[in-house]
Write a structure and sequence with these properties.
This protein has helices at residues 26-29, 37-57, 116-120, 123-135, 141-160, and strands at residues 11-15, 79-85, 88-94, 99-108, 169-174, 179-184, 189-191, 194-196, 198-206, 209-217. It is an alpha+beta fold. The longest helix is centred in the first third of the chain and has 21 residues, at 37-57. The mean pLDDT is 97.
Length: 218
């Protein structure tokens, strides 16, 4: 499913639950040694997906540790992103010659808990989401907004090494085209000698999951 919203140059792998064959390297296991069983299972299968994607890319498929702010540490010459939620785990990787940064996020296609939309969305985004819930029903637009902001951050951080608050990106969705634009309010990012004031993203809602991606071309 995730291959539908990432560029052709990227390699992907996904799973719709925890896989019995998925294992961790010892140094990865240390990262989740205190986590509950559900979290360990999601983490393990997501790392398994990442290694599958790396193998398809022709890159080393060793331990994937975490760096600053929990970002995955990819092998040299690889950019990528990992996501997992209830019922879904996925990873996407690409070469920097094609993709400067990529972020993906998966969420259950359910409304956000009460009060969360107001915490993560700008006032105009809240209005837009409420309108979309009426004019384009069948999509959990509030959850999709949350997911898209997560994908924006995952693409933003490797380029800037700076945190991005929810209110520091303004999102505009195209409900018919399956795309969105993220206007970067915290300042521009730079990639390939370009100054970027916005990111372009893609989204889909299928099988009880909402998926979003942001790709910054090289």
């Amino acid at each position: 499913m995730i291959e539908r919203i990432v560029p052709a140059e990227a390699e992907t792998a996904e799973a719709y639950g925890d896989l019995p064959e998925a294992t961790l390297f010892p140094e990865e296991a240390l990262l989740v040694k205190s986590a509950v069983a559900q979290r360990r299972g999601e983490f393990t299968t997501a790392r398994h997906c990442a290694r599958q994607a790396l193998t398809r890319l022709g890159a080393p498929a060793g331990a994937i540790l975490t760096g600053e702010r929990g970002a995955p540490l990819w092998p040299e010459g690889v950019v990528g992103s990992i996501t997992h939620c209830a019922g879904y785990r996925a990873a996407v990787v690409a070469r920097p010659a094609h993709v400067a940064a990529i972020g993906v996020d998966a969420e259950p296609a359910l409304p956000l808990p009460e009060g969360v939309l107001e915490a993560v969305a700008l006032p105009d985004e809240q209005i837009a989401v409420k309108e979309l819930l009426v004019t384009a029903p069948g999509v959990a637009w509030d959850r999709l907004l949350f997911s898209a902001k997560e994908s924006v951050y995952k693409a933003w951080f490797p380029l800037t090494r700076r945190f991005l608050e929810f209110e520091e990106a303004r999102l505009v969705f195209d409900p018919a085209g399956g795309t969105f634009t993220a206007h970067l309010l915290a300042g521009p990012a730079r990639a390939g000698g370009r100054t970027l004031h916005r990111f372009e993203g893609r989204w889909l809602s299928d099988g009880g999951i909402v998926l979003t991606s942001v790709t910054v071309p090289a």
